[in-house]
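Researcher: Here's the sequence for the chain we discussed earlier.
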Amino acid sequence: MTDQSRYDLFAACAPGFEDVAAKELFSLGIAHPRAVPGGVEFRGFLSHVYKVNLWSRTAERVLLRLGEFRAITFKELRDKAKHIAWENAVRSDHIRLRVTCHKSRLIHSDAVAERFVAAIGDRLGRTIQCADDDDAAPLIVARMVDDVCTISLDTSGARLHLRGYRQATAKAPLRETLAAAMLLASGWTPDRPLIDPFCGAGTIPIEAALIARHVAPGRQRCFAFMDWSIFDRDAWAELLIKADEMIVTKTPSIIQGSDRDAGAIVASRSNAERAGVLNDIEFTPRAVSAIGPIGRGWIVTNPPYGQRVSADHDLRNLYAQFGKVLRAKCAGWHVAMLAGNAQLEHSTGLKFTTVVRVDNGGLKVRFVQGTVPDRGEQHEQ
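Model: Thanks. This is the structure I predict for it:
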């Protein structure tokens, strides 16, 4: 690899939000990002690798494609894999390797992984070992689909939702990347008020404040590409300087987070303080019925949906109360939320015009959004 080469790259994101991630990458200066199942394909230089890792709020991981070939036997797999320039990606005797196989004749991932390790050793002329517990070892991702093997090098290290600020957690925490994707998909802009009445550990309000103040989500963390021999420290330092120059001192509008669980509010404030946005968010312990919106804005939230927090509890009454409060206090406001199923969604009594099925930590949920009707429209209904 060289810093002047152009690469095929892939930004993985939460399934269901690929289009949102593609729009975000385009806004970061990526030409022709293409949304595909599970993420966004794009081409770029190492400078783009740096920038996307630093600035993407929706990507979980950025992968650099090392090669792609077709293989239907284990011998063919090993022979073709050893022609990849592993010396550019593997500089020690340890790697981490993740293999998935779908609709291929080579369906056993452990056997495929064994051939990859052997092929890397063939190429480098030394014994290579898998060390999945060694976070410093480079992560190689191999995916076999329809007998075609795609091999990628992870550029990110720890998943990108690990911004570094969320150390205090509440029940069923929401990943930072998913919270950011919800905000971007909702159409919210920082000049309008935002309320999360089920804020939990505060992830949605904190991500909103980071967006409003133009804070790069990866500013306080390290990345795998920093260990590469071709890592350009000067280019990275310049990127950080530019990022810091973009930060504004305060959010232009109100951001509120509330939760009936006082412990969740303590966690929210602690996380917001680590993120540097505590003074930008009004955190309040209160029930949904006590929210008091000003003007018109957005409700973006992740209410409980049963599978983990209240598995044996009927939440329809909670959703019905939520919808009643919004109709009484938030006429004309935009609403975006995750719902565990259509029944809970319909219990609000609101009409949602957008429904996207997304994956939240292995749970299949629905991202829905709409507008609370004005009182005149409610009367007509």
